[in-house]
Amino acid sequence: MLTQTAGQEPPLADDRPVSQPGSLERGIDILLALSGASRPVSLAQLCRSTGLPKSTAHRILGVLCGRGLARRAGTGYLPGDLLEVLAGGPARGPGARRAVLPYLLYLYETTRQTVNLAVPSGLEVRYVERLYGHDRVVSPSDATDRAPLHCTATGKTLLAFDAGLRQEFLARGAFERLTGRTVTTLAGLERELAQVRRHGVAYAREEFAEGVSCVAAPVFGPAFGSPGGRIRMAVGVAAPAYGVPLGRLAIAVRGAAQAISAALLGEQTSR
């Protein structure tokens, strides 16, 4: 029998079994695997990256989704809205929001219409900043800050300049009709996206909501090996479909997007 002398440390128990990770550690592993994902991550992919059994991962994902830390996106999963808010969001990295907001405010003061800053979230567009007045146009996205990619100007912008997102989205082949003007065919959408790349601006004329048109342009940010960066987000303006010249809005929107891109690329260079 082992005895312990007063004042001595207890012997090390080297033969103790190593404790298995609990639910908290497993949940953290899943959140880490989801962090930064802009495309849905399948359950199988999460199991491979975390080493968790399918039943365990599925159970924990159910809890995370219920608490807003993860969310379902088709057959996969993405970081939840609460997690993105806690993390600061894709447009709120160090210096990013400070660089972006003055140009969004100037765009609102110039147009007096609803100004949106959008990023991809799975196969949707998510609005991470919005500036508007009391007479803002009403949109189905107001309650959720999300919208389809194919029938919004910000969504078309993201599709046009993000080849990976475009390939994944266009693989669906047919797209939901929201109004009588919604482009629902693959060929029709591909033609529009080619025009967006050619002119650097996207339009959506009553394609998402009756009575609402919008214009958007791409914002580029730092990317390794690419001096001009890659698309990070889209700046858009939503306005009444009648009485507001979209061509004039397009000039203002494109100017704001170019200024934000220059600010983001300039901040990266100065670091």
UniProtKB/TrEMBL annotation:
<dbReference type="Pfam" id="PF01614">
    <property type="entry name" value="IclR_C"/>
</dbReference>
<keyword id="KW-0805">Transcription regulation</keyword>
<dbReference type="InterPro" id="IPR050707">
    <property type="entry name" value="HTH_MetabolicPath_Reg"/>
</dbReference>
<dbReference type="GO" id="GO:0003700">
    <property type="term" value="F:DNA-binding transcription factor activity"/>
</dbReference>
<dbReference type="InterPro" id="IPR005471">
    <property type="entry name" value="Tscrpt_reg_IclR_N"/>
</dbReference>
<protein>
    <submittedName>
        <fullName>Transcriptional regulator, IclR family</fullName>
    </submittedName>
</protein>
<keyword id="KW-0238">DNA-binding</keyword>
<dbReference type="InterPro" id="IPR014757">
    <property type="entry name" value="Tscrpt_reg_IclR_C"/>
</dbReference>
<feature type="domain" description="HTH iclR-type">
    <location>
        <begin position="21"/>
        <end position="81"/>
    </location>
</feature>
<dbReference type="GO" id="GO:0045892">
    <property type="term" value="P:negative regulation of DNA-templated transcription"/>
</dbReference>
<dbReference type="InterPro" id="IPR029016">
    <property type="entry name" value="GAF-like_dom_sf"/>
</dbReference>
<feature type="region of interest" description="Disordered">
    <location>
        <begin position="1"/>
        <end position="21"/>
    </location>
</feature>
<dbReference type="Pfam" id="PF09339">
    <property type="entry name" value="HTH_IclR"/>
</dbReference>
<dbReference type="InterPro" id="IPR036388">
    <property type="entry name" value="WH-like_DNA-bd_sf"/>
</dbReference>
<keyword id="KW-0804">Transcription</keyword>
<dbReference type="GO" id="GO:0003677">
    <property type="term" value="F:DNA binding"/>
</dbReference>
<feature type="domain" description="IclR-ED">
    <location>
        <begin position="82"/>
        <end position="266"/>
    </location>
</feature>
<dbReference type="InterPro" id="IPR036390">
    <property type="entry name" value="WH_DNA-bd_sf"/>
</dbReference>
